[in-house]
Amino acid sequence: MLTQSLLIFLLAILGYLNSFFGSSMISRPIVMGMLVGLVLGDLTTGIKVGASLELVWLGAMAIGASNPPDMVSGSIIGTSYVIVTHSSIATAVALAVPISMLMQMLWNLLMIVWVPLLAAKADKYANEANYRGIDRMHYIAVFSQAILLAGLTSAGFFLGSKAIQSFVNIIPSFVNSGLNYAMGIIPAIGFALLVRMIVNKKTACFLFLGFLLVAYLKLSVLGITAFACVLTAILLFNTGHSSSNNQVQEVIDDNEF
């Protein structure tokens, strides 16, 4: 258990340092769940739980000053809970959502005190043209978050599923229900943001075509992708456009969505 807790700690640090490595998406639930399954010796369950949690946080993204729930701790603890106790995947979702919200709120509270102190120190170094001091404050802020949250995540795993469940049971049911509803809205917001960026009058028909194929023909995602590839080839090779035409045309943004 101690060795697994140490591995969970290192895995959590890796997830929290996602931005440090150029936002490589290693903090996503589908990646964290797979790695937890690898650490705990049940890769198949880890992938399944990670994929389910990925659907919960599919549209979660940081927009302005609004931060999404902490996916790393929720994914790790939720996946490990299912693997250790052999519970259902739905249990992981019910456990991961409140934990992720609590961890994010904890870090937000610490940011109110800790990060402004580091920022004030960085401003002092900036006035002194001390570039190394500014870099040092930046690294302290990044690694302090990773080490603290990773420590709490590994501690939750080490204490065991019963302790985690007891802690979650303290949360009032109406708060838990509110969190679940909020997490259900987040993917819809994410999809709406994506649709607003890529859909206009010329591309909306393809969106509705995919929806109709799924709704009425019950096609899978792979089947929709295959249809899309064929349709793309038809439009590309049979529209009469010459590949030698290199004239740049003015693009008018007629997005009405």
TrEMBL record:
Main location: membrane
Pfam families referenced in this protein's UniProt entry, alphabetically: EII-Sor (PF03609)
Subcellular location(s) per record: Cell membrane
UniProt topology in membrane: Multi-pass membrane protein
Domain of life: Bacteria
Coiled coil: none
Keywords from the named record: Cell membrane, Membrane, Phosphotransferase system, Sugar transport, Transmembrane, Transmembrane helix, Transport
InterPro entries: GatZ_KbaZ_carbometab, PTS_IIC_man
Transmembrane regions listed in the UniProt entry: 46-64, 76-95, 101-119, 139-159, 179-199, 206-237
Protein name per Swiss-Prot or TrEMBL: PTS system sorbose-specific EIIC component
Organism for this UniProt entry: Neobacillus rhizosphaerae
Gene from which this protein is expressed: sorA
